Amino acid sequence: MVMVSEFNPLDPATAASVGDLRLRARLVVEGLLAGLHRSPLRGVAQEFVEHRPYRPGDEPRLVDWRVWAKTDRLYVKNYEQETDLRCWLVVDTSASMGYAGERSGGVAKLGYTVSLAAALSYIVVRQGDNLALAGFGEGIEPYLPPRRGPLQLSVVLTALGNLRADGLTDFAVLARELAARSTRRGLFVVISDLWGDPEVLGTSLAALAARKHELICLHVLDRDEVEPDFRGALLLEDAEDMSRLPVDGEALALRYRRRAREHFTELSARLRSAGVDYLRLITDEPFTGPLRRFLYRRARLIAAVKRRTVRR
Questions:
Q1: 12, 52 in Cβ contact below 8 A?
Q2: Which is more confident, 222 or 54?
């Protein structure tokens, strides 16, 4: 019997050593869901549809008391319930996702992301909802439309296991293509290192949110990208366009940390202003703890929103 603790067997290095992605996802989820609501990825997805006349037995909290005050008649507010969630996992496969620093134990950002996406896939299927996958670099590949059930989980896990980091990213194109392919409202979980113009990123994801989709952005970074340890004379190589630049390590590290803080602050602000739930993850740390707290906080906020909606 396998004993599952906080992130054992799913610290980044150990998780990468588990070759069976389905087993890895199950082990992660068994630890992750401890103490969580059984459907932690359900969104608000509750929208006012119409009024109908009050019938004996209807809950008083559903009565629209403002209408009663104006008309002296009792009407109940009907809502469209969240019975058919469509969850889209959107995974960055650009070349920069292939980076693996020494402090991450050799775990590349894409490998970490695959474990994370596999765990989320398992949760979505376990709660009986529709699961979709979109890998994105210069285009969307692979693309698996929303379906439910164990077969879809197997197909998605196989596709995740075959992902490779290559090429560039274009978030504006990504948002347009996803908007065209998702005719019904859903939950988009974008997993990426988010190296790009914060304004473009925010605007692109806001375009999806404007179509009444809910968005979660999981920002995956290597420790070197947050706290670089540059020393001496270095030759930097861009992971995406392969250009090279000679630099002084210590001076670069100081400038980089300042610019990185500015980038992360602006990025976080733009995503939140666009209505995107945001969580940053570092590949040398287990993701279960931060993800559990994130999902728990999100579930509490959604429950509060639903209570306010029903009371209106």
A1: no
A2: 222
Domains, the chain, in order of start with CATH, read 47-80 (no CATH), 87-311 (3.40.50.410)
pLDDT, mean over the chain: 80
Long-range contacts, 229-238 (Cβ 8 Å, 24+): 229/253, 230/256
* Burial class for 12, CB neighbours closer than 10 Å (0-12, 13-18, 19+): buried
pLDDT for 70-87, tens place per residue? 887 787 765 544 456 889
d(CA 69, CA 92): 52
Burial class of residue 14 (count of CB atoms within 10 Å of its CB; 0-12, 13-18, 19+)? middle
Helix, strand, coil distribution of the chain in percent, nearest 5: 45, 20, 35
Positive/negative CA dihedral, 98, 100, 105, 110: negative
pTM above 0.85, yes or no: no
According to DSSP, residue 117 is labeled H
Question: The tokens of 8 are what?
Answer: 């054992």
Cα distances from 61 to residues 64, 71, 311, in angstroms, run 8, 18, 6
pLDDT tens column, 259-280: 999 999 999 999 988 889 999 9
* Token code pair at residue 71: 């008309």
